[in-house]
Design goal:
This protein has a 6-stranded antiparallel beta sheet with strand order 6-5-7-13-8-11, with no helix packed on it. It is built from 12 helices and 13 strands. By secondary structure, it is of the alpha+beta class. 52% of the residues lie in helices and 15% in strands. α6 runs antiparallel to α7 and α10 crosses α12.
């Protein structure tokens, strides 16, 4: 006789994540969790959460938290949805305010560099040279330093956490690229190499523009959270439950399937259920989009968040907590953002790979002096940080060139790519 072995029952847990700075971070956490035996995880970068299913015989919540920490990020188990949402909202509001302040400071410090960069877009006839320093180099150093190390400290912190976890993300590229441009410019300024160019404006502008992107992203994430919170607010916080012949107001978390509850006229229905007594009309426009009222009587289905209009209904709960239709809509909305984010990430990687290959085909000659090579390396770093901060493009271009020549070829290739992408021709020293 064949023995049927049932699949082990999986437990599900929701983790709140901290330390993510880009979609690559979310992908890294998801991949790290899915490596564990008996674990299936999906990370949502928009809501900064991870939905994890695991076999309790092979993993535990402590193992999950340790695995996230090993990847270089933080995680907590979410147990109280209302408190967790309130804490997330407060944290995201504080982060958005801090980002806005830092961007304003960075923009003010970077604005003088933009004025100096205007001649670079011209042919140089008005100013005698396309790279003439309109701002003294010590002043450029003073303007760029706080942008690099105070405003840009988040990129160094994120890069450290990513490298410590054995991976690389956008922060690594931004920190690497801007640091190379900044340090080369510091060396040129301190040693008085007036025949060499400085790139303080490049490092400051890259940090400011990336920070602007993070600000817009934080606003979008806050908007996503607010929209999901608005859906959940459609559900009342209390339910009038019939227990021992009396109506008792209890929190929604205490309602279980099979409980009978009362919904009076003008109240929203707390959980999904079936009408057992009474008749009324219910506004279900939040589900159907139609303004027409739906008549409800014994045997009719009602849904959490809908509005009871003119009668009293006695219903039996069939779907509570995460099993309600409203909760399903919230989950689908969050997952829809996640899927679109993955599609955008894949498209960006493909475009950057094609862009890297196109730039590779344009290489013609290489620098000859060590100073030119150092300058090219600083330009390389800025290119890495500015080219969508995507590791795929970097790997494609760097590995392709490593297979054919020396490091000077790499410097030349990346420098030429940066110069041509900016539509500027640098005069040879």
């Amino acid at each position: 006789m064949d023995t049927i072995v049932s699949a082990p029952a999986q437990e599900r847990v929701e983790l709140g994540l901290t330390g993510m700075t880009c979609a690559a971070c979310a992908a890294r956490i998801e991949k790290s969790l899915n490596r564990l035996p008996g674990v299936t995880a999906a990370v949502n970068f928009a809501t900064e959460t991870a939905a994890v299913g695991f076999d309790p015989a092979r993993a535990s919540t402590e193992v999950l938290l340790a695995q996230v920490a090993k990847a270089g990020y933080g995680a907590t188990v979410r147990t109280d949805p209302a408190k967790d949402r309130a804490a997330d909202q407060a944290r995201k509001s504080a982060e958005l305010a801090a980002l806005r302040r830092e961007f304003i400071v960075a923009a003010i410090l970077t604005l003088p560099f933009l004025v100096q960069m205007v001649p670079m877009l011209l042919n140089g006839s008005l100013f005698g040279g396309a790279h003439e320093d309109l701002i003294p180099r010590p002043w450029q150093l003073a303007l760029a330093t706080p942008v690099q190390f105070w405003i840009g400290r988040r990129f160094y912190i994120g890069a450290w956490h990513a490298l410590r976890g054995g991976g690389a993300n956008m922060d690594v590229l931004v920190a690497l690229g801007t640091s190379m441009a900044y340090l080369w410019s510091v060396v040129v300024t301190l040693f008085g190499w007036h025949h060499e160019h400085v790139y303080f404006e490049a490092s400051a502008a890259v940090i400011t523009l990336v920070l602007l992107g993070k600000l817009l992203e934080a606003r979008a994430k806050a908007g996503t959270s607010a929209a999901l919170e608005g859906l959940l607010r459609l559900q009342p916080s209390l339910a009038h439950v019939l227990r021992d012949g009396a109506i008792t107001d209890v929190p929604l978390a205490s309602v279980i399937a099979g409980d009978r509850f009362v919904v009076r006229a003008g109240e929203r229905i707390p959980v999904d259920g079936v009408v057992r007594d009474g008749a009324s009309s219910v506004d279900e426009s939040m589900l159907t989009g139609e303004s027409a009222m739906n008549a409800k009587s014994a045997g009719g289905k009602v849904f959490a968040g809908t509005l009871n209009q003119d009668g009293t209904l006695t219903c039996e709960a069939t779907g509570v907590g995460g099993a309600t239709l409203l909760a399903g809509i919230v989950v689908m909305a969050a997952n829809d953002w996640l899927m679109r984010s993955k599609v955008r990430t894949g498209w960006s990687m493909a475009c950057c790979s094609v862009n890297g290959g196109r730039r590779f085909a344009r290489v013609r000659k290489r620098p000859t002096t060590w100073q030119a090579r150092m300058r090219s390396m600083s330009m390389t770093g800025v290119l890495l940080a500015s080219d969508s901060s995507n590791p795929c493009s970097t790997a494609c271009t760097m590995l392709g060139r490593l297979g054919r020549g020396s490091s000077s070829h790499i410097c030349d290739f990346m420098a030429k790519a940066w110069v041509r992408s900016c539509m500027m021709l640098e005069p040879s020293p």
